[in-house]
Amino acid sequence: MPVNLHVRNVDDEVANALKRRAAERGRSAEAEHRDILRQALITDRRADAIRMMDEIRASTAGRTHTPSEVLVRESRDER
Questions:
Q1: What single DSSP character describes residue 3?
Q2: Going by C-beta distance under 8 Å and a sequence separation of 6 or more, which residues neighbour residue 33?
Q3: In sequence order, what are the residues at sequence separation of 6 or more whose Cβ sits closer than 8 angstroms to the Cβ of residue 32?
Q4: Distance of CA 44 to the CA centre of its chain
Q5: Considering the entire predicted model, what is its pTM?
Q6: CA end-to-end span of the chain
Q7: Between vectors from CA 38 to CA 28 and to CA 36, what angle results, nearest 5°?
Q8: Average pLDDT of the residues of the chain
Q9: Buried-state track 14-49, b at ≥16 Cβ within 10 A, e below 16
Q10: What is the pLDDT of residues 28-48, one digit of tens each?
Q11: Are the beta carbons of 32 and 22 closer than 8 angstroms?
């Protein structure tokens, strides 16, 4: 069942940005607001996580990495 949400005290800058974004996408500010909320709260975050992992992988490319099992073994041996 849909619910009505009311947001008070929104800065003029934010409200104007919402209206501009909505106009650019050919929809009402209300529809844009719903879409922003849906994306922020409902959208699957898996794609974001995969993209972040790819960025980390790319930023460490070419570096030598010690396998985790070696690090664990070394840590155990130190005890």
A1: -
A2: 18, 22
A3: 18, 21, 22, 25
A4: 9
A5: 0.53
A6: 58
A7: 50
A8: 91
A9: eeeebeeebeeeeeeeeebbeeeeeeeeeeeeeeee
A10: 999 999 999 988 887 777 888
A11: yes
